[in-house]
Amino acid sequence: MSHESTDELPAGLVLRRPVVADAEAVAEFMCAVDVAEIGEAETDANDVRDDWGLPRFDIARDAWLVVDDDGGVQGYGWIWDKVPDHEMIGDVYAMPGETHRAIASALCARIEERAAEHLSAADREDEVTLGFFAPVGSPWARFLDERGYPVTRTYFRMEIVLGDEPPTPPSIPGIEIRTYQPGADEVALHLAMQESFAEHYLFSAEPLEDWMKRRSAHPVTDRSLWRMAWDGPEPAGGILPYPFDGMAWIREVGVRRAWRSRGVGRTLLLEAFAALHALGHRRIGLGVDAQNSTGATRLYESAGMHVTLRHEFHRRVLRSGRPVSAQG
After folding, report:
1. 62, 76 Cβ separation under 8 angstroms
2. Cβ count near 299 (within 10 Å)
3. Is 200 exposed, middle or buried (0-12, 13-18, 19+ CB in 10 A)?
């Protein structure tokens, strides 16, 4: 099927591949959809370019636009193989309303075609899956339900709005919180975070180079905000804050099993709050698996955060077999 086809699309709309110069228009459209679905915009062009820079992502094969006769963006979809050729994540943006279903169908069909290519490249004994995130109760969530993507997990966005003075991080005997040192701490940080998340749903081990690239590529990245917890020479955990406009974001916070239940995670959070507060940020958010087995939701609540948004992960098994999420 041609990727320039108008199949499944209303008259006046066509499908084409994006190019790098489309990032601003794509971000503007994504923001309009966000406002319609969740009440606020969450995306800028740097976020779009960051997605397009993911390992193995090919804009000419893994992304699509729906545009009108004037070239205006009316739909956007993409797919990424988080675990190469095995565990795929997709996303579709279509404005709620009368054209939503047609545009979502066209984009989802192309994503599924690309997923089939990954499926054919994977070992025949391995499980292959495709999943999508959707705001709870949104038209996109209802579309996924009807298309045969069952909900397998719920995720929370949790936030805190800091006052004039951020909470004071407590000290922990034997634990030192230090600023991440580029060129010295990469291996230790990667080790700490990979171990911290090893028990999480659909965790997949990631090589150091890919892991660091994904966490350093965004233009707002400020590694002087990153913190690590040390027990002598051993990394106990770490936290990666990002100073996004509007709402700063904690991308990851993790504590290795041997150092849990000692307050390390809470102290790292409060250290990050203080560092972001010093830069003028007051609203801070993060995402968390609602069924997290390590008690992360309770940890974040203890630091003053609360749930503001719920997303569901809709996941279809394209082929049953050996799970590959935990393989390196």
Report:
1. no
2. 21
3. middle
In terms of residue numbers, what domain contains 56? 14-149
Q: Which two tokens stand for residue 173?
A: 């005997």
Q: Is the pLDDT of residue 240 over 90?
A: yes
Can you give the pTM of this predicted structure?
0.91
Q: Could you tell me which of 251, 252, 257, 215 has the C-alpha nearest to residue 236? A: 257
- Strand ranges (DSSP E) for the chain? 14-16, 63-67, 73-83, 87-94, 128-135, 151-161, 176-179, 227-231, 234-242, 248-255, 283-289, 306-319
State how far Cα 160 lies from the chain centre: 19
Is-contact 44 32, C-beta < 8 A?
no
Q: Over the stretch 67-126, which tens digit does the pLDDT of each residue have?
A: 999 999 999 999 999 999 999 999 999 999 999 999 999 999 999 999 999 999 999 999
Same-domain status, 99 and 179:
no
pLDDT at residue 292, as a whole number: 84
Number of domains in the chain: 2
